[in-house]
Design goal:
This protein is an alpha/beta fold. It has 2 domains: 12-249, 3-Layer(aba) Sandwich (Rossmann fold); 255-321, Alpha-Beta Plaits, CATH 3.30.70.100. The protein has helices spanning 71-78, 100-105, 122-132, 137-150, 166-177, 196-211, 223-226, 246-252, 266-273, 296-308, 324-333; strands at residues 31-42, 45-56, 60-64, 86-91, 94-95, 107-110, 184-188, 215-220, 231-236, 239-244, 257-264, 279-285, 288-293, 313-320. The strands form 3 sheets. The chain has a 6-stranded mixed sheet with strand order 6-7-8-3-9-10, sandwiched between helices. A 4-stranded antiparallel sheet has the order 2-1-4-5.
Length: 352
């Protein structure tokens, strides 16, 4: 049996070809996904609260938010698995509320939980999903070969799926999700639980598919993953609170300038800075602090003196560029004081 090596993770010669299929009545539009005032309620619990956005064809669109923000609920509605309470969403030109079956025939979906059968062989899982997606018999062998090549599992067809490393399972699951060559792919936390190297390799494959014309809609709460997306929507408590490229969000989200402060003792510094004049926010980042201030130039000498008088030794303080995590914290912290919308939350809706 050939060894499966990390260096074999990508096969750039394997290309993706979108299947031709009857288009929806709005398919000529430049957007693959259009969402208008979409709402989902469970009793008095508002899981998704009047969201609006459009995803362009061939775009890698990230849906970023904390656990329980409404990401998975939204993606399940877009896949025709959950009927909206109100509003409208078009996927591949079809209305998800009125035409869910047409939507499901034209998309690929990979859930945050491993979706294949561990006790089946690799080839058995591929054939099973090919049948579920009604892959034509004339294309079946070619699609099987493509999936095996994409996952670098050629020659390993008879391995039991449950014996594969986690990253290879995810690649196989992705191959099964796109056996029917959909033009739109929904990925719900696709790299949850895999190591950083495998995560990077998985994203290289996603970018390759996007280059071949696939629209990728991906949910994540990993900030470093969000950087790989063309555009991002940040959802918090069921509402879209920011939309733009990663660079735009980092540039526009901060209501002030960001300082990096290295000091000791860290705990006393954090407590003291809660009442420091001019400090809008203070948070621990590793062995340092990130502070949001109105103006960095004026704040730096003032903060040195402020901390020194309280027994805190500052070894480094400087202005830095905000990360996506800084932007996320800034955008969500200001909304934490707002009333919680989840008054009647179903347990399963607390997942991302």
């Amino acid at each position: 049996m050939a060894e499966i090596r990390d260096s074999d993770a990508l096969n750039p010669s394997v290309r993706y070809a979108i299947a031709s299929s009857p288009a929806g009545p709005n398919a000529a539009a430049p957007n693959s996904v259009v969402i208008e005032n979409l709402v989902k309620r469970f009793g008095s619990f508002i899981a998704v609260d009047h969201i609006n956005l459009a995803v362009r064809k061939g775009e890698i669109f990230g849906f970023l938010g904390p656990n329980g923000a409404g990401k998975s609920t939204t993606i399940r509605m877009l896949c025709g698995l959950l009927k909206p309470t109100s509003g409208r969403a078009l996927v591949a030109g079809y209305d998800v509320g009125r035409q869910p079956e047409e939507v499901r025939q034209r998309i690929g979906y990979m859930s945050q939980k491993f979706s294949l059968y561990n006790d089946l062989k690799v080839i058995e899982n591929i054939r099973l999903f090919a049948g579920l997606y009604s892959v034509p018999a004339s294309e079946l062998q070619a699609r099987i070969e493509w999936a095996l090549a994409m996952a670098n599992l050629k020659g390993q067809e008879n391995l039991i799926t449950g014996t594969l490393p986690g990253g290879w399972k995810q690649r196989l699951a992705l191959g099964c999700a796109v056996l029917h060559r959909p033009s739109i792919l929904f990925l719900d936390e696709p790299t949850s639980g895999v190591d950083p190297i495998t995560r990077r390799q998985f994203w290289e494959l996603i970018h390759q598919m996007a280059e071949d014309g696939v629209t990728v809609f991906v949910t994540t709460h990993y900030m470093e993953e969000a950087e790989y997306c063309n555009r991002l929507a940040l959802i918090f408590r069921g509402k879209i609170i920011a939309l733009g490229t990663p660079s735009e969000l980092k540039r526009d989200a901060m209501k002030g300038e960001l300082l990096l402060v290295e000091c000791a003792p860290l705990g006393e510094a954090v407590e003291a800075l809660q009442s420091a004049p001019g400090v809008m926010d203070a948070a621990v980042f590793g062995n340092a602090l990130h502070l949001v201030v109105a103006g960095a130039a004026a704040a730096i000498p003032q903060l040195k003196d402020f901390l020194a008088t309280r027994g805190v030794a500052v070894s480094r303080i400087e202005k830095i560029r905000p990360s996506l995590e800084d932007a996320f914290v800034s955008l969500t912290t200001s909304r934490d004081a707002a009333p919680e919308r989840r008054t009647d939350c179903r347990p399963e809706e607390r997942r991302p």
